[in-house]
Amino acid sequence: MEYKVLDKGFLRLVDILGDDYSAVKAARVSYGKGIKTPDKDKKLIFYLMEHKHETPFEHIVFTFHVKTPIFVARQWFRHRIGSFNEASLRYTELKDEFYIPNHIRKNVKEDKQKAVKVEDEDLKNMALELINKAIEDSYRAYKELLKIGVAREMARIVLPMSSYTQFYWTVNARSLMNFLNLRADSHAQFEIQQYAIKIAEIFKEKCPWTFEAFLKFNYRGDILKGVEL
Amino acid sequence: MEYKVLDKGFLRLVDILGDDYSAVKAARVSYGKGIKTPDKDKKLIFYLMEHKHETPFEHIVFTFHVKTPIFVARQWFRHRIGSFNEASLRYTELKDEFYIPNHIRKNVKEDKQKAVKVEDEDLKNMALELINKAIEDSYRAYKELLKIGVAREMARIVLPMSSYTQFYWTVNARSLMNFLNLRADSHAQFEIQQYAIKIAEIFKEKCPWTFEAFLKFNYRGDILKGVEL
Amino acid sequence: MEYKVLDKGFLRLVDILGDDYSAVKAARVSYGKGIKTPDKDKKLIFYLMEHKHETPFEHIVFTFHVKTPIFVARQWFRHRIGSFNEASLRYTELKDEFYIPNHIRKNVKEDKQKAVKVEDEDLKNMALELINKAIEDSYRAYKELLKIGVAREMARIVLPMSSYTQFYWTVNARSLMNFLNLRADSHAQFEIQQYAIKIAEIFKEKCPWTFEAFLKFNYRGDILKGVEL
Amino acid sequence: MEYKVLDKGFLRLVDILGDDYSAVKAARVSYGKGIKTPDKDKKLIFYLMEHKHETPFEHIVFTFHVKTPIFVARQWFRHRIGSFNEASLRYTELKDEFYIPNHIRKNVKEDKQKAVKVEDEDLKNMALELINKAIEDSYRAYKELLKIGVAREMARIVLPMSSYTQFYWTVNARSLMNFLNLRADSHAQFEIQQYAIKIAEIFKEKCPWTFEAFLKFNYRGDILKGVEL
């Protein structure tokens, strides 16, 4: 499963360990027949989620390959329960790939953390032109620095946060649900939300019961509910 | 793959995410073509291990089902990078299954941490009889407490450390190698060594290059080398 | 600060890093003046807790010295975010110290996970006698095994779960709040609840605003509310 | 203790939990009198380090306040065992503070991961001019975007990796030693090395025995040895 995200990014499921039934099996080891719920598998998953018994969901593990702008990657890497291997700009040259938004957002007076899309076409055009030019200039300086012999690790300091990077991410379903709680939410930045939505789709496809139980009992965000994924 | 371990225990591989090639792919994302080693896959794994670039090995993940005495489980659970779901004696009744050694070890004067097997048959018989009787008495008391109505969570406080327990363990290859460094070693207790050896066998079977590189560059223990697993 | 807990255990605060103000300072680095709440310190802590911004509380760290029965320690060590150093029965001989309850609990028909104290004096006496005798017998066998020369690590397999152990525990306030959510709750076993209550007292004493905000917004348990700590 | 690092950065020790003796006390709980080394405190620390018993060092915890360029922060945040609170460019405006190197490095043919300082003044001047201009242009575009009303979280995508950021970092001595192994080494990028050296100085000042033992038994890097910190 691979999804395009943003203008040049992607999210790709590389591999998966287990499924809904992995959580069921792990929980059955814990509780034996002593668990007070019905022993039906789906019911058990709902019981676990409702009572915040989250460890069984750690036995479901996903590996993703992600291509995303650096400012998104920086938010992503704050999630410490998981494994990352990211492309290094010390060793490899950055390709000419930058995130250029197709819209512009403004801050809102009432809430300094909020940003909303603007309709004003003039402003949008002016802003996108500024962004495009700034990024082109930065990339030209980067290429120039490499050309005259400056080390890659040093030349890259002029590169903008919109530069695309890539990484492998291995994460268990419990940590992934925490990611969705924080990033599949209107308080998260728009760009990381787009990845979170695709992660939710993959999660739903691969672990439908766990996903359903998550939405019902554990999800604290606001953009996944009521949406047809 | 399932192995019998000790008198009544087992180690069973439930599932695995990835293989040698998962580490290779993750490393390639990190280093691109910038890596200075040959791009042959096996060579790359040896390069990573030699230079202690261990994160790529986190993308290989194992789930084991383990049955082991509680004093072994207590050592096992000290390894925090991994996921555990253990049978609960609060909710389920302990079956009549206890570890009874088939040998006896004595402490050594020169090294308080060492224990060696004794040949003395009389001592062995006397010790095993004491152990057997103590465990039988404890179990009888446990059953008696349950019979008169004491809660399982309370009755179990008389149970001995040799009681068998079961758990699910999901662990990545990097953390598993750390486990082997500490437990597949003559300084570890004999009983947990037996499990570590079987884990090493499974690891070798599933990730032969990673295992070979681990033994060559990273392994700090002393019981896996030169042994035909 | 040191508290006696259960019949022979204790909980002692060894050291602490920071206080309420550490979370405030860390949050101020994150949000600068951009945060939309009033900049009063206490209000900021309430804002963080209400909105589940929990990372600032990781900069408050406690070190405890704990003495507790092994069956309680086993529950405690499931909390992986934290540092443990526990007394080893491989290297040291267990002293004659076991948890002997001063009451007896029964399971409840309706809820297999629940256990309630019984009033029946006859049952209580019978049960306590069984427990006492079982523990004495186990300890006698242990001493006998040591006497005839069996290694400490092997003799201890007959010891009961009620044996007292000791450990150092270093844990940040975020992980500690998670501990309280799970263990300062009527679904936790009675014995670990007693430690959790004392931890809550120390937490309240050292970080009064954080504790107040925790109880208001984050606490999922049921035994700390409305109680005069 | 506060050190200036690079042209506009700093490393400041905010607070510390424990010292050499904390590791000693934690180890004594583990080993009791059963440990085979002399019970002198300093000797015990050397014994622990030599035998890779690293958990006692987790009971020493540092909080640092760091100001560093974003490309350095990105390397720093890969260290998952620790707590971070970083200034957010979603909520606050970036000040006009960028890392401008005072030298230029070139890649080396033989080793794509290496970069060495160049003596060539002409090249250096040309490169620094390019860097300066690129960064000024980016910052001007950023300010312009803010001025016409673009949201901070969006405007910042044109900012370069050399932008300074700030964060709080709480980390235990074991994880800090791992940081030094990787970053106080000639294979790490020059800029993060400068921070690692100052961290080593603070570590040495606060935990002299642990630091000495670390250098002797555990340190895998190459720039701290033989240097007068």
Automatic annotation (TrEMBL), chains A, B, C, D:
What SUPFAM superfamilies does this protein's entry cite? Thymidylate synthase-complementing protein Thy1
Listed Pfam families: Thy1
- Annotated residues for binding of dUMP: 75-78, 86-90, 156, 183
Q: Which reaction does it catalyse?
A: dUMP + (6R)-5,10-methylene-5,6,7,8-tetrahydrofolate + NADPH + H(+) = dTMP + (6S)-5,6,7,8-tetrahydrofolate + NADP(+)
Listed pathway(s):
Pyrimidine metabolism; dTTP biosynthesis
- Enzyme active site: 183 (involved in ionization of n3 of dump, leading to its activation)
Stated EC number for the protein is 2.1.1.148
What the entry lists under InterPro entries is as follows: Thymidylate_synthase_ThyX, Thymidylate_synthase_ThyX_sf
Q: Which UniProt keywords apply?
A: FAD, Flavoprotein, Methyltransferase, NADP, Nucleotide biosynthesis, Transferase
Q: For FAD, which residues are the binding ones?
A: 55, 78-80, 86, 172-174, 178
Q: Which cofactor does it need?
A: FAD
Functional description taken from the UniProt entry:
Catalyzes the reductive methylation of 2'-deoxyuridine-5'-monophosphate (dUMP) to 2'-deoxythymidine-5'-monophosphate (dTMP) while utilizing 5,10-methylenetetrahydrofolate (mTHF) as the methyl donor, and NADPH and FADH(2) as the reductant.
Family statement: Belongs to the thymidylate synthase ThyX family.
**Name of protein:** Flavin-dependent thymidylate synthase
